[in-house]
Amino acid sequence: MNQYGPLPDPHEPLGREEAARAFADILDAKASEDEIAIFLVALSERGETSLEIAEAAKGLRQRLIPIEAPAGAIDVCGTGGDGHHTLNVSTAVSLVVAACGVPVAKHGNRAASSKAGAADTLEELGLDMERAGRLAEASLRDIGIAFLFAANHHPAMKRITPIRKRIGRRTIFNLMGPLANPAHVGRQLIGIARPDYAEPYADALEQLGTEAALVVSGEEGLDEISCAGATRLVPVGRLRMEHRITPEMVGIPSHPISAIRGGEAAHNAAALRRLLQGEHGPYRDAVLINAAAALQVAGHSPSWEAGIEEAGEVLDNGLANTLLDCWIAYS
């Protein structure tokens, strides 16, 4: 036993068995809060390996409360923490993609570093989060979309959350949300705010047996495909795509990130509703390019251009807006 008690020394990369045991002990409260904090900070300072990320995700997956999902369901989710405080792009993309006929099991939470997370904005729009959580499996089956509120599905994280707040910096658990979807989706569009982590993160997804995924990171540190510049793309599994894209390459205008700056939940909700009602502008362009990526990951669209066209159609004909209304009424 070393200075970290039951946890292994995190200053050197952990082997698979070491990592699996360490995260099992953390999630099962077999280590003290001080030991966990020291371990997580040291791991972050050294830089988490893809194996460690995968084993942490496996531990969380083994302890979550699952739901059944239709075949072909997808998640569109970012790791957050990019500091740009943009409007809720992945939430809007989820509605657009679901309106295109692809089931979306949207895994999310309330705001951590931003002013309004997916749950905050959807609640402001009228979605009853408690009821939507209880009916998630049914709404995913019946109308093709569900919000999987992380707090409802990850009881093991209840003890970890105050430790993370006490640490006050990013740890491996900031990467876990997209890797532990309660619907066990096999296809994902994942945004990560750290371009240097895109490759290890994609490798972790490979180790987890992901069917098809695309890890994206705007080169300015954005956890989605950027309309402000280039974005790094790392395809996973059976997906075959280019590894770098700019909006101009697919016919989308370029905009500064400030053009989609978000605010409090009421501000973001109003912007999302205007988007779904057909408003054009930078927010729409950001949603179109990200939706086109998600539709390709889902195997629904063969190209960026086809995905952008279909996403634009469901916005213009009101299908995405109607889906939101149906979801609110259902829940």
Report on the structure:
- This protein has 331 residues and is α/β, with parallel strands linked by helices.
- The protein folds into two domains: 32 residues, no CATH class; 257 residues, Nucleoside phosphorylase/phosphoribosyltransferase catalytic domain (Pyrimidine Nucleoside Phosphorylase, Chain A, domain 2, 3-Layer(aba) Sandwich), CATH 3.40.1030.
- The protein is built from 14 helices and seven strands.
- A five-stranded mixed beta sheet has the order 1-4-5-6-7, with helices on both faces. A two-stranded parallel sheet has the order 2-3.
- The longest helix has 16 residues.
- Catalyzes the transfer of the phosphoribosyl group of 5-phosphorylribose-1-pyrophosphate (PRPP) to anthranilate to yield N-(5'-phosphoribosyl)-anthranilate (PRA).
- This is Anthranilate phosphoribosyltransferase.
Give a short overview.
Its EC number is 2.4.2.18. This protein has 331 residues and is an alpha/beta fold.
Q: Give average pLDDT, whole number.
A: 93
Q: Strand percentage, roughly?
A: 5-15%
Radius of gyration: 19 Å
CATH class of the largest domain: Alpha Beta
Number of discrete domains:
2
Q: SSE layout and pairings?
A:
Elements lengths: L15 H12 L5 H14 L3 H14 L10 E5 L10 H11 L4 E5 L9 H8 L3 H6 L1 H7 L2 E5 H4 L6 H8 L19 E5 L6 H10 L4 E7 L12 E7 L6 E2 L19 H12 L5 H16 L6 H13 L2 H12 L1
Parallel strand pairs: 1-4, 2-3, 4-5
Antiparallel strand pairs: 5-6, 6-7
Helix pairs in contact: 1-3, 2-9, 3-10, 4-12, 4-14, 5-11, 12-13
